[in-house]
Write a structure and sequence with these properties.
single chain; about 450 residues; mainly alpha; Growth Hormone, Chain: A; 21 helices; about 0% strand; disordered C terminus
């Protein structure tokens, strides 16, 4: 079927049309010229994802018995993952709200607001009472703050991606767009590295009693750093030029659904694979590996820290190859690889062999880099400037519900049904869904 998007894809494949459009892939001058912008897009996203990941790690390790003690061990983990998934349902709501202001008043101020909301919600989790202290009020407060985390993050990724891509010189959109993506492994390393240090420093009783609160407290320092960087940047050239041509649309989400519904659906499906890989290889693998499979917590965290480096490598490779070929092509390769990884992930996790576990996690996260790295330029390029913040944010975060919120829950159910080797079937399905999303807009790509 031929889908016609109007207006056409705004630069989504521009770098693919004529190679690198004269830009030498080994030339670092554009990075140096825009280092403040790129730093702001990376650091802010790293802070936001650090906040998000420390929740995921705590959910896998301690939130079950602390907030749902009256349930069985398996049910505790399931409830804990459900609170983790709650933020994914808050993210599209945040995407609509922050996207509205990002498309009407600008990228910079909206990014600052999203960071502050995310940071405040994370910091308050550090002071939460447990179920033993206040009963059912404890999980209720946890859910409210988790919703606040997701609401803030809903406005983060799209704005950070636009900050990088809308400042990119010709032929550099994918390489600039990879910088917000690199914030994900940076935030993960900071989060899990801190949990690893705490695990080595504290015994299990001290960690469960108060040690888990420390990462949430330290988020205040990182949020301050992110705000300091972002307050020093200006508005993007694309948004400034769009304001000079015409007034912002009154309701960006309405315009998006009326005129860009196919692009929004395609983007939503296309991001499912990256969310599914990440949250299965991190939060689910950690919780299932340390509880159901009995792997030592500190050793598993160390293996994950090593494996996450392959995600960063995948993002960088994807950025460079996307500018040399096309974002669509790299994403397609990544989706095919996701399907293959799906059949290998579960058996490697259940193998009991640390080398195989590491290879399985590293391979999955490298593929995650391939399906995540090009999204900054590909997804934002699906939409015109006047609805780009809303469009990219809604598509990205709606896809997070399918790929991220459901991943640990479905994987846990699959593990209980058919054992650990079956959990990767969800990855294979996610790869198929994302591939279908890419095919929805394939015919709109035309040569320059």
């Amino acid at each position: 079927m031929l889908f016609i998007l109007h207006p056409p894809l705004h630069g989504v494949q521009s770098s693919a049309r004529t190679g690198l459009e004269g830009a030498d892939s080994l030339d670092f001058a554009p990075y140096r010229a825009h280092r403040r912008i790129l730093t702001a897009s990376l650091v802010g996203t790293a802070v936001e994802f650090y906040d998000f990941y420390i929740y995921g790690t705590a959910a896998a390790l301690v939130f079950g018995p602390l907030f749902f003690p009256e349930s069985s061990e398996s049910a505790q983990l399931m409830y804990s993952f459900m609170t983790f998934g709650l933020a994914f349902f808050a993210r599209p709501v945040g995407a609509i709200v922050f996207g509205h202001y990002g498309d009407r008043i600008g990228r910079k101020s909206t990014l600052v607001a999203s960071l502050m909301l995310m940071g405040a919600s994370t910091l308050l989790i550090a002071f939460l009472p447990t179920y033993a202290m206040v009963g059912w009020v404890a999980p209720l407060l946890l859910c409210i703050l988790r919703f606040g985390q997701g609401f803030g993050l809903g406005g983060e990724w799209g704005g950070a991606a636009l900050l990088a891509v809308e400042n990119a010189p010709p032929g550099w959109k994918a390489r600039f767009g990879m910088f917000p993506q690199l914030g994900a492994p940076v935030g993960f390393i900071a989060a899990n590295g801190l949990f690893l240090i705490l695990g080595l420093w504290l015994d299990d009783a001290a960690f469960a009693a108060w040690g888990w609160r420390i990462p949430f407290l330290l988020s205040a320092v990182l949020v301050g750093l992110g705000l300091w960087v972002r307050l020093k940047i200006g508005e993007t050239p694309d948004f400034a030029e769009a304001l000079e041509r015409e007034a912002p649309v009154a309701v960006p989400i309405g315009d998006l659904l009326r005129h860009h519904l196919v692009a929004t659906l395609a983007g939503t499906f296309a991001v499912v694979a990256c969310f599914a890989i990440f949250y299965l290889a991190t939060s689910f693998a950690l919780g299932h590996g340390t509880q159901a499979l009995g792997y030592p917590k500190e050793q598993f965290l160390l293996v994950q820290l090593g494996a996450i480096l392959f995600m960063a490598v995948g993002i960088i490779v994807a950025g460079y190859v996307s500018d040399a070929t096309s974002e669509w092509r790299v994403l397609t390769w990544g989706c095919g690889a996701t399907i293959l990884i799906g059949f290998l992930f579960g058996p490697s996790l259940a193998s009991g062999n640390w080398a195989l576990i590491f290879v399985g996690l590293a391979a999955a996260l490298f593929v995650m880099g391939l399906v995540y790295g090009p999204l900054g330029s590909w997804l934002t390029g699906l939409f015109p400037v006047h609805v780009r913040y809303t469009g990219a944010s809604v598509a990205f975060n709606a896809g997070g519900i399918l790929g991220g919120a459901m991943a640990p829950i479905v994987a846990q159910a699959l593990a209980e049904w058919g054992g650990t080797p079956t959990v990767g079937l969800y990855l294979a399905l996610a790869g198929v869904v994302s591939l279908l999303g890419l095919l929805m807009v394939r015919r709109t790509v035309t040569p320059a």
